[in-house]
Amino acid sequence: MSQLPDLPVPITSERDNDGRLVGLAFDSVPPPATPETNPWLVAVDGSDSALRAVAHAAQQAQTINACALHLVHVQPWLSREAAEAKLAHRAWLATERARALLDAKGHPWRLHVVMGDVAEGILHLAGQLQCSRIVIGSRGLGVTESLLLGSVTSKLMHQGGPALAVVP
What we know:
Blueprint: E1 12-15, E2 21-27, E3 39-43, H1 48-62, E4 68-75, H2 80-94, H3 96-104, E5 109-115, H4 118-129, E6 133-137, H5 143-149, H6 152-159, E7 163-167
Parallel strand pairs: 3-4, 3-6, 4-5, 6-7
Antiparallel strand pairs: 1-2, 2-5
């Protein structure tokens, strides 16, 4: 049995009308100085393509004087008990490499953990934060596969919102 990592204290948490934990946010150490300034949202799911998206966003952010990187990790709906016990730990493990990459580059971040449909969760958070850009990794699916599987990238492109950067 693997040991769960120690988690920092979240800076915020969100609950639904039934009191179920549905969202959390964590800051890097040190935290972003101005997280509301030109926020970019980077979708992170633990995959190599998501890690490439984080690297791309960090590289682009270095060329911009004021850009706050917000990571988002979306988990499928969990029961009340599972959300309390596992939501933060699952997200913390899935985003470990992305957070480490930004830490190594000295780029502060804010991690948002939400439950629900991935595309809807990303768009909702991007609207809340008033993001100027969403950065997401492409899994390299062809047109046919994307249409059949209903990829998150396709949903984000069709539902609108902030500028979308898809990193291959």
